[in-house]
Every structure is written in C-alpha cells, then in structure tokens.
TrEMBL record:
A Pfam family that the UniProt record links to this protein: Thiolase_C
Coiled-coil regions listed in the entry: none
PANTHER family the record matches: ACETYL-COA C-ACYLTRANSFERASE, TRIFUNCTIONAL ENZYME SUBUNIT BETA, MITOCHONDRIAL
Catalytic activity: an acyl-CoA + acetyl-CoA = a 3-oxoacyl-CoA + CoA; dodecanoyl-CoA + acetyl-CoA = 3-oxotetradecanoyl-CoA + CoA; hexanoyl-CoA + acetyl-CoA = 3-oxooctanoyl-CoA + CoA; decanoyl-CoA + acetyl-CoA = 3-oxododecanoyl-CoA + CoA
A single GO BP: fatty acid beta-oxidation
Lineage summary: Eukaryota, Metazoa, Chordata, Craniata, Vertebrata
Protein's recorded name: Trifunctional enzyme subunit beta, mitochondrial
Domain called Thiolase C-terminal: residue spans: 335-474
Keyword field: Acetylation, Acyltransferase, Endoplasmic reticulum, Fatty acid metabolism, Lipid metabolism, Membrane, Mitochondrion, Mitochondrion inner membrane, Mitochondrion outer membrane, Transferase, Transit peptide
Subunit field text: Heterotetramer of 2 alpha/HADHA and 2 beta/HADHB subunits; forms the mitochondrial trifunctional enzyme. Also purified as higher order heterooligomers including a 4 alpha/HADHA and 4 beta/HADHB heterooligomer which physiological significance remains unclear. The mitochondrial trifunctional enzyme interacts with MTLN. Interacts with RSAD2/viperin.
Function summary: Mitochondrial trifunctional enzyme catalyzes the last three of the four reactions of the mitochondrial beta-oxidation pathway. The mitochondrial beta-oxidation pathway is the major energy-producing process in tissues and is performed through four consecutive reactions breaking down fatty acids into acetyl-CoA. Among the enzymes involved in this pathway, the trifunctional enzyme exhibits specificity for long-chain fatty acids.
Length: 478
C-alpha cells in the first residue's frame, strides 16, 4: 500500500470492549468522525515572529543523533555513555564548535546505568570536553531530552550561559537487573558483620527465593500497569480498531523508509562500533503490509487486545544532541541557525486513564501561550508511543465533549491535518530511545520547516507518569 493511499480511515465503529473509567464509557458512546477535518486545508497563517521583548532568542544551531537501533543488535556490547559520547562527538564534527566555547551540557535519560548515573558528565569527558564544563543529567520519562533542552533554554534566556549542549540517551540492550530486596538487605547486613560467626549467621538466613532477580519493567509505579496495557485500554476507550492502528503503523514505516531513502534523515551521524561495523542508519524501519500486520497476536491484553508489537514503538538504543545558543552569540560566531525554540509547556494528568494523552493537553496550552492557532502550524511532530495512543489523542482533540468534560475547555482543541503530521515517520518506525526522542522530534521539525517552507512547528509528546510536553519551533529566516 503506497503512502498516498494510507490516509487514515478515521470513521469510528463503537465496540463493546471492557473500559475501566467512567469518562471513557461516556466518551466511547459518542461516535466522532473527523476524517474531513484531517483533510481540510490549513488556513493562511500569520507571519509574525514569536520573539519577546527583553528575552533572549534561543536558537538551534544544529543537532545530530546516532542511528537508532533495535535493542540487542549492533550496540549490544556498549554502555549508555558510549552512545552519548558518539552523539556529542558527532555534534562537534557537524558544527566545528570549540569544546572551550561550550558552557554547560545537559542530557536526559530514563533507565540509568548505575555506574554512570550522571551520564552527561561521563559522555562529556569521553568526548574530550574540559573537566571545567559542568554537566548534569535529567529524567522525565519519554520527555527527558525535552526537559534537557528546556533547561538549556532557561540557562540561555536568563543570561547564565550563551552556549549549551542538550541531548539524551537510552540503552535498552543492557538494563540494570537487581537482586531481590531480601537478598540486598542480606548482603548489606553481611557487609557490616565483623566476625566469622556473625557472617555465618547472616548467610544461614538466605533462602532460595532470595535469588529471584528484579527485572525493570516499562510500567507505572503508581498503578503497577505496563504502558502497553494502558495503550490497549486507551484504544478501547476511544474505539480505535486494530485495523486503524495497523494502518497508522504502516503509514509511519512507509514514510520513514521514504525519508531515509531520500536523505531527509540528515541528523543521523555514523557510529563506529569498536571491533565491529560502522552503523550508518536506523535499523527498525520495516514497511510491511496490512496482511502481515494482521497476523500478529495482541502483545498485552490477550486474546482480545488490539496493541501488537507492530503497532507499538520498539525497545531502542540511541543518543541525540543539539547545540543551543543565544541568537546573538550564534551570529557572532558565524553560525546560521536552523530554528528558534519558542514557547513550551509541560502538562500532567491522571496516570491511569489518561497516561498517554499528554499531546492533547499540551497542544492548546502551548498554542495559547504563543498566541497561535492550530491553523498557524505548518509542521506537526508528535511522539508515537503506540499507534492507538496517537489515534486516541487525535480523537480526543477532535471532541467538544472531551474538551468540556475532561479538560475544562469550552471547545475542542482541533485536529492536525494528517498531511502535515509526522510526514517523515515517527517513533513507531524510527525507534524510541526514551531519553533521546525529544531532540529527534525538534530536529525533524526544524528540517521539515526548511524543506517545506513553513514557519511554525508544534512538537508534542506523552510520557510515563501521565505527563506531556509541547513546544513551538520557529524556522530561522533564510
């Protein structure tokens, strides 16, 4: 199926699927069709700039990322700081920025390697930066590098710094696996024992179940529910069919392959795996067919769930980095920036029933903050955690009922035109290293604005904990 034939068929058929929340029950009883809105032309937009008097303009000079790879493939023997170092070195090569000119480095990550808990610092030292340059690490689930970038914006806008590197990394090929709590307590007690008799007494208390390891899970601590289960329930609540999810996933992979083949994914820099090959491109892009996708079994809620391995983002290894500066500093150093980073918001909702609806809540807030409307936006880059998550957000954004009853708004948010939405693929196909995706979204937005002649882009993402992020990116004048 070609990309032109894969415009979403978003007419809804209400299904009698189990739905946990009362608002979802009431919402799913309302049939909403917004395919016509997805096809409607964007109105003429304003050409005003979003510069603010008395506030420094923050620009993206450039950004890069390592190829995003399926976990367990070519990066398997590395460590997170290796990939983060690769992104930083790639950015140094791409921009020719002097390491002495950088004033601060911030990285985002989610599942931390205990040996390098401040991965920003370890990566910076490994990449050849001076030990005099401060570096710190932030975490905010899937929007960790978004937080890294906005932290950098704050440093620059407030006058604390003029040149900051921000990025993110995730390494799912090797995650920390802990001993059980019982064994950890025993080992700590054993470490404090002074005599042989005391040590033997501690060892004698060890039981077979002490050796059961604790594996990390992509799950909510507050609800003990995996994100995949949440996505399945969300798809059911919004009456998103399996076919619609598979269609969207196929669209993502098809568009990503086209963008890769045509050289649009220019933020990717080669990564030399020591003793192995040099990796040059993402390896999770796999266009298939609806027939093949239909053969996959539900991955989380069995046997009647609709979320599968193919319509979900996959576990990914990768790192990203962007060079942010005050505009005046960038111009003084002879750079031609790619874009401005403008207004942004972080939002938070119920982590059980609205875990993945961050974009719906963030979009109207960031638009209102910037004084823009949906029609002003030329490029949309939304994080694709699951196909059902994206479609549920679009359906929520199209609903006056949801706006009034769940968001406290008088009217619906509105639906992004699908032809302007993730047109170079997204996390479903390119991959989703939790801590690195935010920078990828921003660079995709900046490059698409230039390629398509647009002025404003809207970046949005959901994150674990029921949180979300929205940001306006404005293209730099040609």
């Amino acid at each position: 199926m070609g990309a032109s034939k894969m415009t979403l068929k978003l007419t809804r058929v209400i299904k009698n699927l189990p739905i946990a929340s009362s608002w979802a029950v009431r919402f799913s009883a309302r049939s909403l069709s917004f395919s016509s809105q997805l096809q409607s032309p964007v109105q003429a937009k304003s050409k005003k700039t979003l510069a603010k008097s008395g506030v420094k303009n923050v620009v993206v000079v450039d950004g890069v990322r390592t190829p995003f790879l399926l976990s367990g493939t070519s990066y398997i023997d590395l460590m997170p700081h290796d990939l983060a170092r690769g992104a930083l070195q790639g950015l140094l090569d791409r921009t020719s920025i002097s390491t002495e000119a950088v004033e601060h480095i911030i990285f985002g990550t989610v599942i931390q390697e205990v040996k390098t808990s401040n991965v920003a610092r370890e990566a910076a030292l490994g990449a050849g930066f001076s030990d005099k340059i401060p570096a710190h690490t932030v975490t905010m689930a899937c929007i960790s590098s978004n937080q890294a970038m906005t932290s950098a914006v704050g440093l620059i806008a407030s006058g604390q710094c003029d040149v900051v590197l921000a990025g993110g990394v995730e390494f799912m090929s090797d995650v920390p696996i802990r001993h059980s709590r019982k064994m950890r307590k025993t080992m700590l007690t054993l470490n404090r024992a002074k005599t042989a008799a005391q040590k033997l007494a501690v060892v004698a208390k060890i039981r077979p179940d002490f050796f059961t390891p604790e594996l990390p899970a992509v799950a909510e601590f507050s609800t003990n529910e995996t994100m995949g289960h949440s996505a399945d329930r969300l798809a059911a609540a919004f009456a998103i069919s399996r076919m619609e999810q598979d269609e969207y996933a196929l669209r993502s992979h098809t568009l990503a392959k086209k963008a890769q083949d045509e050289g649009f994914l220019s933020d990717v820099v080669p990564y030399n795996v020591p003793g192995k090959e040099t990796v040059t491109k993402d390896n999770g892009i796999r266009p298939s067919s609806m027939e093949q996708l239909a053969k996959l079994k539900p991955a989380f809620i069995k046997p009647h769930g609709t979320v599968t391995a193919a319509n979900s983002s996959f576990l990914t290894d990768g790192a990203s980095a962007v060079l942010l500066m005050s505009e005046e500093k960038a111009l003084a150093m002879g750079y031609k920036p790619k874009a401005y980073l403008r207004d942004y918001v972080f939002v938070s909702q119920d982590p059980k029933d609205q875990l993945l609806l961050g974009p719906t809540y963030a979009t109207p807030k960031v638009l209102e903050k910037a004084g823009l409307t949906l029609a002003d936006i030329d490029v949309f880059e939304f994080h694709e955690a699951f196909a059902g998550q994206i479609l549920a957000n679009l359906k929520a954004m199209s609903s006056d009922w949801f706006a009034e009853n769940c968001m406290g708004r008088k009217t619906k948010v509105g639906v992004p035109p699908i032809e302007k939405f993730n047109s170079w693929g997204g996390s479903l196909s390119l991959g989703h290293p939790f801590g690195a995706t935010g920078c990828r979204l921003v660079m995709a937005a900046a490059h698409r604005l230039k390629n398509e002649g647009g002025q404003y882009a809207l970046v949005a993402a959901c994150a674990a904990g029921g949180q979300g992020h929205g940001m306006i990116v404005e293209t730099y004048p040609q």
